[in-house]
Amino acid sequence: MLGPPYNHTMETPATFYLVGIPGLPSSHLWLAITLSTMYTIALLGNTLIVAVIWMDYALQEPMYYFLCVLAIVDIVMASSVVPKMVNIFTSGDGSISFNACFTQMYFVHATTAVETGLLLAMAFDRYVAICKPLHYKRILTPQVMLGMTVTITIRAVITMTPLSWLVSHLPFCGPNVVLHSYCEHIAVAKLACADPMPSNLYSLLSSSIIVGSDVVFIAVSYNLILRAVFGLSSKNAQLKALSTCGSHVGVMALYYLPGMASVYVAWLGKDIVPLHTQVLLADLYLVIPPTLNPIIYGLRTKKIRKQIQSLLMHCPFDHCNCS
Q: Does residue 160 contact residue 104 with C-beta atoms inside 8 Å?
């Protein structure tokens, strides 16, 4: 006789349990301290970037607009995983409700998809600024920038909603212990009683298509930028243009290299890459870019660096005068 079909309502567990870093419980305290420090830097740094750009009219330009949106996305990305990770590493409480688990999963995937789109938008901004400087204001109007941001967000939602739906509608009837620090979709899908291959394949294909297409367009943009830069007669102009683009390239490397490594390492499995290495790579991929992005932009972007210095120097004096 055939068994009864899977009943999603009956099979759904009320709670999942996140184990943290499998095989490295002795390192949890140091990981908690490290993540807390990085998260604090990410919150303060990105908040400072947003505040400086918002308050200074001189920074109301397309490049800084996209940087401001990127800082907000970084805050959301880090906040979706780090507080729960620190709680797991310090108290050992890895319980997370079914709905909270898939909400976290959705925010992780959506913010990463938005971030890659923003990096493409920022590359396009640099292309227009360097290759078509006389038409910069006419091409990148506030309406165009808003439209690009909305399009990037819609693309992330349309692409990542099916993934969360596929995984959340799998039948879970066995152990509900997730061998990860957050609700990473492959780690959660492995717990299902049904074949998780459709959701895993969708994740791999969608990530490869989105990131692959964005990287191609970014590469084309920077190829045109480099041609235009080395065609300039002034060495100072060349160095200034390369310096401006250098921060963008650094941020892209921070995002794409560990991100794609995390995706493909998870597919290779623990037979090739140890499980604790996979989990650490996935954790750092979501924390390192939000931590270092504001530092890179703050140090390499002259206008932002000056405004941050001015803000930090004036605030204590203003406070004293008010007192």
A: no
pTM of the complete model: 0.85
DSSP class of 136: H
What's the pLDDT at 9?
47
Are the beta carbons of 218 and 120 closer than 8 angstroms?
Answer: yes
For Cα atoms 50, 71, 62, give the angle at the middle one, nearest 5 degrees.
Answer: 70
- pLDDT score of 6: 44
The stretches in the chain having pLDDT less than 70 are 1-13, 232-233, 237-238, 240-241, 244, 266-271, 299-300, 312, 314-323
Categorise residue 192: left if φ over 0, alpha if ψ from -120 to 50, beta otherwise: beta
Listing DSSP states for 181-236 in one string gives SS--HHHHHTT-SS--HHHHHHHHHHHHHHHHHHHHHHHHHHHHHHHHHHT-S-HH
Instruction: Annotate 284-308 with DSSP letters as a single string.
Output: HHHHHHHHHHHHHHHHH-HHHHHHH
> Residue 105 in contact with residue 78, Cβ under 8 Å?
no
In 3-state terms, what secondary structure has residue 16?
Answer: strand
3-class secondary-structure state, position 61: coil
pLDDT of residue 105: 92
Report the alpha-carbon distance of residue 39 to residue 262 in Å, rounded: 20
CATH topology of domain 15-322: Rhopdopsin 7-helix transmembrane proteins (1.20.1070)
Return the SS3 of 69: helix
Give the tens place of pLDDT for each residue, 25-83: 778 889 899 999 999 999 999 998 898 888 877 777 888 899 899 999 999 999 999 99
* Domain boundaries of the chain, sorted by first residue: 15-322
